[in-house]
């Protein structure tokens, strides 16, 4: 049976991440808590809005109501990378070679490791950012679609249009697909490696609630999503992705919404967090379920696996966080 080590933090905790074997928890008040031979606290923001793990370096990247973009190192050191006074930074992304993207209003920005900053202007507000898997290219989600920008070269931007408000964006690990979350209860996707003129759109609809969490399986064969009383997991292994295929529905619980999903780093095993604080682990191959955590005080707001896949950190909107040891 998995064991759960609880860790209570006062207030709304927006994210949980691992750097190495050390779990980090980001509080909406602006503090970053880590369990490293006891609890250690980093004052990162006056009001924290987003905190992600940088997949290209052992650090976290956060944005706040104070207009700051901050990198938090594994030892808790906070470095301010950019400041936009009187702006809220709720969108950040980490890229290769120390690059960081962030957005406010109708502009997205990419800060290179040498401190130079490049601005990309949109016609509508930027709601989501993602770096392409290979190369310095960013996707900016906005109203009526996504714009792809080349960061290091002067290539013309590419507009991917689809009516509606696009609130988040992600590239598949192999770079063949781009998927957005939408203000309506749906996902939308584009096939990026098709021939010119091909119908490259993918509509993924039928959710009873907005999709706020996405997670790719280790090799990109599956994309898991929240927003339903089960984790909705779309197949992406064929050349056309999920087009014409039904998704898997994992961990179904009647009328209890999934709020977070997180694939194991090596296995096709999905952690599913629910609005009542419960967490299930489900194996794709046979859909076998394992209870990782019983219901708690608040909805699950973040989950992250350690690099070795033995530990799962989780956060909740009520501050009842913790670490699950699945090897116990």
TrEMBL record:
Protein name: WD40 repeat domain-containing protein
Assigned keywords, A-Z: Cell projection, Cilium, Repeat, WD repeat
SMART domains: WD40
Main location: other
Compartment(s) of residence: Cell projection, Cilium
Domain Anaphase-promoting complex subunit 4-like WD40: 262-326
Superkingdom of origin: Bacteria
Keyword Isomerase found: no
């Amino acid at each position: 049976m998995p064991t759960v080590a609880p860790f209570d933090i006062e207030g709304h905790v927006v994210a949980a991440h691992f750097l190495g074997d050390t779990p980090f928890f980001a509080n909406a008040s602006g503090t970053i808590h880590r369990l490293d031979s006891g609890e250690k606290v980093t004052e990162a923001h006056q009001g924290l809005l987003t905190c992600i793990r940088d997949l290209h370096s052992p650090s976290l990247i956060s944005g706040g109501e104070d207009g700051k973009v901050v990198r938090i190192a594994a030892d808790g050191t906070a470095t301010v990378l950019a400041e936009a006074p009187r702006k809220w930074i709720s969108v950040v992304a980490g890229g290769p070679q120390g690059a960081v993207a962030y957005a406010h209003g109708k502009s997205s920005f990419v800060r290179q490791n040498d401190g130079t900053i490049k601005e990309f202007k949109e016609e509508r507000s930027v709601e989501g950012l993602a770096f392409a898997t290979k190369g310095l290219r960013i996707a900016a989600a906005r109203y009526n679609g996504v714009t792809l920008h080349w960061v290091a070269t002067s290539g013309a931007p590419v507009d991917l249009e689809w009516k509606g408000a696009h609130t988040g964006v992600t590239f598949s690990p192999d770079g063949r697909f781009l998927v957005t979350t939408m203000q309506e209860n749906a996902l939308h996707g584009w096939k990026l490696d098709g021939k010119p003129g091909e119908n490259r759109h993918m509509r993924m609809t039928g959710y009873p609630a907005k999709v706020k969490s996405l997670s790719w399986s280790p090799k990109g064969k599956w994309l898991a999503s929240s927003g339903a009383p089960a984790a909705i997991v779309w197949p992406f292994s064929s050349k056309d992705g999920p087009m014409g295929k039904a998704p898997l529905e994992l961990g179904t619980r009647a009328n209890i919404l999934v709020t977070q999903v997180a694939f194991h780093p090596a296995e096709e095993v999905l952690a599913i967090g629910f609005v009542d604080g419960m967490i299930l682990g489900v194996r794709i191959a046979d859909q076998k379920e394992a209870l990782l955590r019983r219901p708690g005080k608040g909805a699950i707001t973040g989950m992250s696996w350690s690099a070795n896949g033995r530990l799962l950190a989780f956060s909740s909107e009520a501050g009842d966080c913790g670490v699950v040891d699945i090897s116990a």
